Amino acid sequence: MMDVAKLVAVRPDERQIAWQSLGFTAFLHFGVNTFTNREWGTGKEDPAVFAPTSLDTDQWCAALASAGITACILTAKHHDGFCLWNTAHTRHSVMSSSARTDVVQSLSDYCRRFGLKLGLYLSPWDMHEPTYGTGKPYNDFFCAQLEELITRYGALYALWFDGACGEGENGKKQEYDWERYFALIRKNQPDAVISSMGPDVRWIGNEAGITRESEWSVVSARLQDHSKIAASSQQADGLPPLSPETADLGSAAALQHEPELCWYPAEVDVSIRPGWFYHPEENDKVRTLDDLLHIYETSVGGNAVLLLNVPPDTDGRIHAADVRRLQELGDVIGAAYGSNLCADASAHDGDGNDISYVLHDDDTCWRGDGEPSVMTVTFPSERIVQRVVLCEQIRESQRIEAFEVVALTGRDEQVVFRGTTVGFKKMCRFAPIPANRITITVQKSRQHPTIRLVEIY
Predict the structure, then answer these.
(1) Would you say 174 and 135 are in contact if contact means Cβ atoms under 8 Å apart?
(2) Does the structure show a pLDDT above 60 at 234?
(3) Percentage of residues of the chain with pLDDT beyond 70
(4) Could you tell me the strand order of the sheet in which 24-28 lies?
């Protein structure tokens, strides 16, 4: 039997809470692959191939903001080694192309104007760099480039690494000095999370936009093992949905024999198109609005952060098809979650105590008193209800294991949603129903449950 006190003792740090509160973020895959129509380059590309005709990072930010995206991560350097910034350590960069524009600087400037946070992806695998595979000389090179990125462009919210590790020209793979990389980041960007191949944020395990039904942030510390992450990440032929073996990462049963636990929240990375870099033949293959809304509600609303890839095209702009879909997505999210029915509602616990503070977004939280723990939200008049949003107080760990939502009209009641985990945010969507009251019953939890916020739409 797992010690419940051990489970609830695992809690996030402030950088992880700040990261999770971003909710909906974007990936921007841009580089020589954009112009060679490839997903993975070779490292032998002539920098002259990078030739955007009208590079416009302002337009990127406007397109992302229209969807309600709060932050973005740019591929400052992919596996091909081509750098999107003015680096002193190689000529294989934008400064050797006709563009001669520090794309990282340009994006950083416009992110600030649009209120977007900026993160950067730096591939540890560098197919172009001759010191790759030599051990310390390459790690020195990598750290020198990393230091440029984390000291020149203001505050970064994330550094994103994958585990790709191919052979260099010498036939050897590089042994990455992860602890050195992380120490450099902590020194220069202490508020930034280190994602995917890092200690702060966990890769969801697929690139299909699929979140587990029960997504736990309290998991085995073994999941932070670099070799295990690398073995399953960044494969050229893409990645399948979650396997049955990885479906349960955080139940008490799954963790009962784990000697060490950690807070390791999930990030869902998925592309708006079939590929990660721009390909003109995919202009009519942008994900449907329904598909994107489903991914949004099950990731942002499933105790994860959504990292939606939107690749700039060969003009250096977000393509019109993607811009249109982002605007549509922002409009439908705004329509679905723009008018909280709790504005004039009240809330009480099972003993009749007023707990209406849970209807306001602050750090005050309700603590249930056992199993089951019940709260009821009452409207002054009947409302049509379709969505309930629940947020735990994750500063006290993740506790809820099972809950249900009941809609009441007069004396009639109907279970409209049954769920397992809640975590930072759970979006419960169901068929529209008229209701005077909504009752939320936590049926199973680790010690007492907590709910920081309830929203109803």
Answers:
(1) yes
(2) no
(3) 96
(4) 193-196, 158-161, 117-122, 71-77, 24-28, 304-309, 266-271, 202-203
